[in-house]
Design a protein that fits this description.
CBS-domain; four-stranded mixed β-sheet; two-stranded antiparallel sheet; alpha+beta; about 180 residues
C-alpha cells in the first residue's frame, strides 16, 4: 500500500506576499516559530524562503531588511500534489536538498509537507508497534539518528560508551543590543 503525502501535510502553511520585506519575513518566522515561508503572488505560489535564505541573502546585502521577498526567495520551488506517494515526495526532497514543500492542488495552495510532519507516523493506528524497552541487564545498543530521508542515517554510540567531560561554568551572557 502506497501512502499519499496528504496524510501528513499541515493544512495551514505560513505564507508571505511577494511584495513584503525581508524584515517582515523574519518577524513572521519568529512570531510563528517557523523557518519556512511560502511566497505568494496573488494566490499563486511564487517561491519559498527559509531562515537560511534570509541569513545568507539579506546579510550579504549588508542586512538590507527592506529588500522585497520576491527579490530573495527561491523561485519555482519543488511542489507536490496531495495524491503524490509519500516515498516519491521524500525522494524528490532528498534530490533537491529541501526540508519542506508546498502542497498544491488544482493550482491552489492547500498545505505544506515538511520532514517534521513525519513525526505523526507514530500516532497512526496502522503504524508499526513500538519496540519493547530493553531489560536493565541488556547491553546498550547504538542509537540510530535519522533526518527521516532515505539514505541519511547515522549510527552513534550509546551514552554509556561516551566519555563524560566536566565543563567550567559558562561566562555571564551579555546582551549585544544593550
Amino acid at each position: 500500500m502506497r501512502v499519499a503525502v496528504a496524510e501528513f501535510i499541515s493544512a495551514n502553511p505560513v505564507t508571505i506576499r511577494a511584495a513584503q520585506s525581508a524584515r517582515a519575513a523574519a518577524k513572521l518566522m519568529r512570531d510563528r516559530k517557523t523557518e519556512f515561508l511560502i511566497v505568494l503572488d496573488g494566490e499563486d505560489v511564487l517561491g519559498v524562503i527559509t531562515a537560511q535564505d534570509l541569513a545568507v541573502r539579506v546579510m550579504a546585502e549588508n542586512g538590507a531588511g527592506h529588500m522585497r521577498i520576491d527579490a530573495i526567495c527561491t523561485r519555482d520551488p519543488l511542489v507536490a500534489s496531495p495524491t503524490d506517494p509519500l516515498v516519491d515526495v521524500l525522494d524528490r526532497m532528498r534530490e533537491r536538498d529541501v526540508g519542506a514543500v508546498p502542497i498544491v492542488e488544482d493550482g491552489r495552495l492547500v498545505g505544506v509537507f515538511s520532514i517534521d510532519d513525519l513525526g505523526t507516523v507514530r500516532d497512526r493506528p496502522d503504524a508499526a508497534p513500538a519496540t519493547p524497552a530493553p531489560s536493565a541487564d541488556a547491553a546498550p545498543q547504538p542509537v540510530v539518528v535519522s533526518a527521516m530521508l532515505p539514505g541519511n542515517v547515522r549510527t552513534l554510540p550509546t551514552a554509556k560508551n561516551l566519555p563524560v567531560a566536566k565543563s567550567a561554568p559558562s561566562p555571564p551572557r551579555t546582551d549585544a543590543s544593550a
